[in-house]
Amino acid sequence: MTLRRDSGRRALAKVIRTAGNSLGFVVFGVGALVLAGLVLPILGLMRRGPRDLLAQRLIHSAHSRYLRLGGWLGLWSIEVDGGERLDGARGSLVVANHPTLLDVVLLLSRLPHAACVVKRAAWRNPFFALLVRTAGYLPNDSAEAVIERCAERLRSGRNVILFPEGSRSPVTGLRPFHRGAAHVLLRSECSLLPVTIRCDPPALKKGQPLWALPNERFRYRLSVGEPLRAAAFGVEGMARPAAARRVTEQLEEYFLARTAG
């Protein structure tokens, strides 16, 4: 009888968690549609000044509230080490690993003004195209063009978020790093802010459906490292292709060491 009751409680807990997960993502989707299709166009007409900064602040506020909702629903908890470095970032290249679907949400919730590199598919979506365009996000279609646009934003004091893996991490380990972040660092001469993201138990991985999520609260931990300049990678005097290769190798080693185990 006791085993039957325990089994029933676990089944009920799983149903409740699945419903909570579904509710959370429905809220996220509806909120994104309202923001992109209604709020941003209206405020863009009413307010003067740079529209991209206004849009980025609205996105930042929406993501912060969404994460608080997920915490209230018992879906996740979030711990941030070195969060003051993110909160005070100006003209920083924020580089992070990419283990879960919510990584960009986690980062944007701490950065009122930041640009992201977005897959070209988002620009073809009738709702999200307005959001990413108004927020000044960048399509990932031309490597050289993206590098220069990122560098321009950094030189003007804006923050830029990049995931060198290019897509979400595999079940274990990391994907090989692309060199785009290194080229942006070298061209802009900005500071690089490394952010290691961990999620325990693993959740929201690439290809993982909602019904397969862990039957427990998953715990995010973000560790924000010290800001780094290009000189910290020992690339002074090197040709840019060789320097970008060295920076990429050292970044990959940095994140592998902090995500192992």
How is this structure best described in words?
The protein is α/β, with parallel strands linked by helices and 261 residues long. The chain has one domain: Glycerol-3-phosphate (1)-acyltransferase (3-Layer(aba) Sandwich). It is 51% helix and 15% strand. The chain is built from nine helices and seven strands; from the N terminus they run ααβαβαβααβαβαββα. The protein has helices at residues 2-46, 51-72, 83-87, 103-108, 120-124, 128-134, 143-155, 180-188, 240-259; strands at 76-81, 92-96, 114-118, 138-139, 159-162, 191-200, 218-224. A seven-stranded mixed β-sheet has the order 1-7-6-2-5-3-4, with helices on both faces. α1 packs antiparallel against α2 (51-72) and α8 (180-188) crosses α9 (240-259). It is globular.
Write a concise keyword list for the protein shown above.
single chain, 261 residues, alpha/beta, Glycerol-3-phosphate (1)-acyltransferase, 7-stranded mixed β-sheet, 9 helices, 7 strands, 51% helix, globular
**What global shape is seen?**
globular
User: How much beta, percentage-wise?
Assistant: 5-15%
CATH architecture: 3-Layer(aba) Sandwich
Give the number of domains.
Answer: 1
- Poorly predicted residue ranges: none
Count the beta strands: 7
Which series of helices and strands comes N to C? HHEHEHEHHEHEHEEH
**What is the typical, i.e. mean, pLDDT?**
83
Distance between the termini: 39 Å
Major β-sheet annotation? 7 strands, mixed
> What class would the helix/strand composition place it in?
alpha/beta
Give the spatial strand order of the biggest sheet: 1-7-6-2-5-3-4
Radius of gyration over alpha carbons?
20 Å
Task: Please count the helical segments.
Answer: 9
What is the top-level CATH class? Answer: Alpha Beta
Percentage of residues in helical conformation: 40-55%
CATH fold name:
Glycerol-3-phosphate (1)-acyltransferase
